[in-house]
DNA sequence: GAACCGAATCAAAGCGCTTAGATATTTCCT
DNA sequence: AGGAAATATCTAAGCGCTTTGATTCGGTTC
């Protein structure tokens, strides 16, 4: 287990210079076939594995991309998680350690998967870092020092810290395009999605008393709310139920809905800012004995897996999450070749997914 | 976007030597407080981010661990995937690109998650690499050059390639402990699990005609089969249905079960080698109009999320997957400190999870 | 056979950081 | 105040690789 063999050892064994060894691995066509085999044989016998540190230092590029994957489930302010309303199970209690909370892949998981797949497809190494809410910045900086480009989730890290990193290497962020100029962004067409789902409720199901609800004010959610309002106005529906936005976590979504149930002032539909919000809403409604979609329709936004399996299944707007991840990788690699191009905001299309919770029939 | 600032720039700006800059970041207590602040200020103004390549080269350690995550779903021989028998959905067709196959986290996903969480908790950087079945070895070698230790899934990579890597850096493998001496292993107590589930069928449900079935002969599966046999023998149950093991994929599990259905020679229970096998079995049975568990019981092994949600829910033996991932990281870090200790085989406990598919009632 | 040429190989200069060991500075005694 | 001991900082030598420009080599051409 002594310190492993280096180019020097291989070179000596093959009777060539270290330059030739390097060429053999990086630009094989520059080396005469016979020499190449000699070197490869020596490398093989020695069990030579090139040091990425040395290469990275010499080339000025590490050849790896980074993903800063913030775990929302570990976030104390993250709310009740995704499991509300899902089928319970005899072995659930005490199984937390083993991933009960993660029965389904979450939004971030699916995007992360896209990043992984695209990196692998392109032979790029991928460093995934996580917070560790304690020392997010230290972790981020550590990752930044290891990679050529970085993909991050919104609000996983302070803006200034991110800006600082972005001065050194390309950074691409999901959503939040309005803030953080100076880096690329991948977003989805929130407006179209929210409009489509609102119009469907109005025209498809003849509902007019719609209420928008969501836990967090984010760029995405704001755009959705805006489009929701627009769709109501366009349809000539007057806003009986004011959009509710228990922003900042003052009032949780659950509490808000619970109150509404008690007051008996239910709208005809809850248009939720996200699927996770919708799951919470449906959970509360079930507990209060309110039938979905009979008494009230519920819609989400995102298209996470859990919404597909829950009963009633969740009508939603699906974001192309895997593709978003892949796109981030593409943007990063592009940016490495063209550092001076102006920052890009790539807006990906969404798709209305009609399921049971709005009143549609499953096929 | 010029090449970023280095220790030299920071040193110059702070009016100290580069050594002091380095100390400020690595061993702050060795630097006088006033100097430290000077350096940190300079670093901050310059947007200094230490280069991990340079550090790795100088220290002989990269400070990162690697995970070689083979994607079984991309494996052409991987069989029908996990979705057999799961609820279908209006938006399923054509949605493949967006992760339909991964509606639930698979075994590898949960283990990977454990690796990630433990790395993050310990402030370790984590490199996840994937095959790319084409050039697995190249990818593996690339990763190996970047990390201090490597975690791999069984049979994701040729044994010799792995052995070669293991000569250079610590490697820990899931399962397969019988092969590949010379590296650490994390396994589970397959024997206890298989025995427990078999005994439950015999004593709990009074079944005597049990049939073992699984797609792949692996160390894990062999141990399970062995314990299955042992449990039958111990219970004095004679083996009416010979353990069926369509090894090597000659006959797929699906075909085997289909044939059995047609012949009308059903056992009282299918004891499957893995949950994925069990899902396939249940899918075929459903298609053949055979009621589970009324006409035949089915059990799995692993405890993947899908088995919890499918109806009837799947009785199985749960592996502590997240913990296995965490354990791999622990072993790796241990091994770095104690290279000469003999290789370890860590056998983690499993837990019998009774659900509907064996005939038990959900609570 | 001298002059020349392309191809193959090599020598050497870093890349940005860590860390012994040397040196400068401060602290604390007597 | 003088000097030893403790502390703070610096000098300089790598770490293993890439890559430019120089050198060597085996042939061609005239």
TrEMBL record, chains A, B:
Annotated keywords: DNA-binding, Repressor, Transcription, Transcription regulation
Domain (HTH lacI-type): residue spans on this chain: 5-59
InterPro entries membership: HTH_LacI, LacI/GalR-like_sensor, Lambda_DNA-bd_dom_sf, Peripla_BP_I
Stored SUPFAM superfamilies: lambda repressor-like DNA-binding domains (SSF47413), Periplasmic binding protein-like I (SSF53822)
Domain of life the protein comes from: Bacteria
Gene3D superfamilies: 3.40.50.2300, lambda repressor-like DNA-binding domains (1.10.260.40)
The protein's name: LacI family transcriptional regulator
Originating organism: Pseudarthrobacter humi
